[in-house]
Specification:
Blueprint lengths: L11 H44 L3 E3 L3 E4 L9 E8 L6 E2 L4 E6 L4 E12 L18 E8 L11 E2 L4 E7 L9 E7 L6 E6 L7 E4 L1
Parallel strand pairs: 6-7
Antiparallel strand pairs: 1-3, 2-3, 2-12, 3-9, 4-8, 5-6, 5-10, 7-9, 10-11
């Protein structure tokens, strides 16, 4: 009787089919592995590019932070902060910057509004200390030093080598011996925290440390 388990009939055609099946499986597996590798590489590149963009678009403080007390009371009404781009930084649109405030007296304001066009001429709140609604606090650009567009059409881009003096309104809780913090959050880049203490005695103008 013939042995039905004999492999004598295993032809070259069948061997070719098996070989092709192995090649197809290996090709699909290689494609999946390569695709995952390409995706990982692209993700890493995007992360690096984002990090470089953020690192190159940060602000730094130039000089002292000045407290302005014009009310004749025991609190400051404004702070003047001179800011510039860090070395190698790219131009930054300050109209998109968010400034928040907090102090150890419980004063909080998550978004101090910028004036239209960032001009201090547009301040809707002058030195009126009777205004209690701190949501109306505003900030503006009081001065532009080394302004690259002083003789042309002005813009709202802080550019390399420029120094802008920001005038930021302070709430009623910014009294003497108070530690206050302003956080400057540009559209792209790291937050610049500014923490200073109001001295025990106030002059019309003083540096905050």
């Amino acid at each position: 009787m013939k042995n039905i388990n004999s492999e004598d009939a295993f032809t070259g055609l069948e061997a070719a089919i098996v070989l092709i099946a192995f090649v197809v499986v290996a090709a699909v597996f290689s494609y999946v592995v390569l695709g995952a590798g390409f995706f990982t590489t692209q993700t890493a590149q995007a992360t690096v590019h984002t990090g470089v963009a953020q690192a190159s678009s940060s602000l730094e403080i130039v000089g002292n932070v000045m407290g302005i007390a014009v009310s004749g009371e025991d609190q400051i009404n404004y702070v003047n902060v001179s800011v510039a781009l860090t070395a190698g930084g790219t131009a930054m649109d300050l109209t998109q910057m968010v400034i928040s405030y907090s102090d150890n007296n419980g004063g909080r304001n998550p978004n101090i509004n910028a004036t239209p066009t960032l001009s201090c001429d547009d301040l809707t709140i002058e030195l009126d200390t009777s205004v209690a609604d701190e949501t109306l606090l505003q900030w503006c650009v009081g001065q532009k030093i080394n302004d690259l567009h002083a003789d042309t059409t002005p813009n709202n881009l802080l550019e390399p080598n420029e120094i802008w003096v920001l005038t930021i309104r302070a709430p009623d809780s910014a009294t003497v011996n108070t530690k206050l913090t302003y956080n400057l959050q540009p559209a792209v880049g790291a937050v610049l925290p500014i923490t200073r203490s109001v001295p025990g005695g106030l002059n019309p103008v003083q540096a905050l440390y």
